[in-house]
Amino acid sequence: MLTEPAPAARKHYHDIDGARSVLMFLSVALHAGTVYAPARPWITANVDRHAFFDWLIFGFHLFITPTFFFVGGFFAVLLLSRRTVGDFMWNRFLRTAVPLVVIALTFNMIESYLRWRDAGGAGSMMDWITSPAFGQLWASGGWQLHLWFLVSLMPMFALAALVQAIVPADAAIRGRVVALIDRSARWIAGSFPFAIALIALGLANTANFTVAMVMPGSYDLIAPGFQSYNKLISEFPFFVIGVMAALSPRFLTALLEWRWWMPMAAAAALFFQPYSEVEHGPLLGQVTLFLNQLAIWTLVLFILQFFHRYFAAGGPRTRWLADCALSMYLFHHCFVYIFGRALTHVAWPVWLEFAVLTVLAAATVIAIHELLVRRYAIIRLLFNGKTDIEEVRKAPGLFAVFAGADNRTKAARPAKAIAPH
């Protein structure tokens, strides 16, 4: 994208990185909830479901992936400001494309085979691979499962690199774009202007969806196995605002400024969860679509403000979470299905099953990350796209970070004097 020269000191945005990390962990609860949501009856053969989990998963869907796209745009600009376009594309290939392909060919295939069996398919995995269902899985894009987010990010990264490559470094348009974003930061500073900005963002997203809905073929796959134009364009505004926040520190500051009313607005958005339905009709459907997009922007920006306010300092725990986050995102989906499938044979209360499923899936991924991804270079490269195995081996692991941090803190403090009686 349009970037300026990198600053002398590289700043690490622990708040934004922390938000991404925690939301990737929260994805485990989201997908565990689908096992018990009446709206997702095809997720395992489980019949013990509760309407609360519909509310849970639709609530999580409002803000988890849109925040990911904001973060993706933000860090894309930072990377482009520090690397050549070629280095940036190589980095994105390693960090995004390699894990995407490896997970798609391994864990996603295991899960897809189990789904095929649960849907009535009979036979071994080889029988499934040689069946028409396997070809349909790849042609329809069903192979992506939760990886659709990474699939959508890749063309956005490519677009950012293209703009960076074709716009000269000294082009006047670069300064004009940044100046315009700086000016918009002044427009949204404070509480009331920010509320107006939220409404404007909701209207912009609504217009984006409306145009996409009437475009011929917008719901068809752009290419076999890929995604539709509608799916790509629906998340693009969040990527763009992330780009703008990285280009203008003033704009980022204005976005992350704490507003006293945002927690209440976010709570209302999460509670009511406005979703447009077919039976709403044209007018009510448009109003509900706008309220839906307004709710999404409110939740996304509240999360970013919350992490900026309370988790900007960083630390060993934040660094560990950030390192484990991609493993959690990539691996958890398959384990949620495997464990969720196994739990269909028990007669526990649905709340207990959900808690056990969430903990089991997360704990399994953490064990894989600690015992394999952090220890073996080839596994770290294939499943995380990272080549920093020597550095990460020296970094504290899970138990050192979470069990040892308090002890080290206590040891570093001087002994408290005993007050006289």
UniProtKB/TrEMBL annotation:
Q: Which terms are listed as keywords in the entry?
A: Acyltransferase, Membrane, Transferase, Transmembrane, Transmembrane helix
The record lists the membrane-crossing segments as 21-43, 55-81, 93-110, 147-167, 187-212, 232-251, 258-275, 287-308, 320-339, 351-373
Q: Carries keyword DNA repair?
A: no
Annotated GO MF terms: acyltransferase activity
Annotated Acyltransferase domain residues: 14-368
Q: What protein name does the entry list?
A: Acyltransferase family protein
Name its species.
Erythrobacter fulvus
> What taxonomic classification does the UniProt entry list for its organism?
Bacteria, Pseudomonadati, Pseudomonadota, Alphaproteobacteria, Sphingomonadales
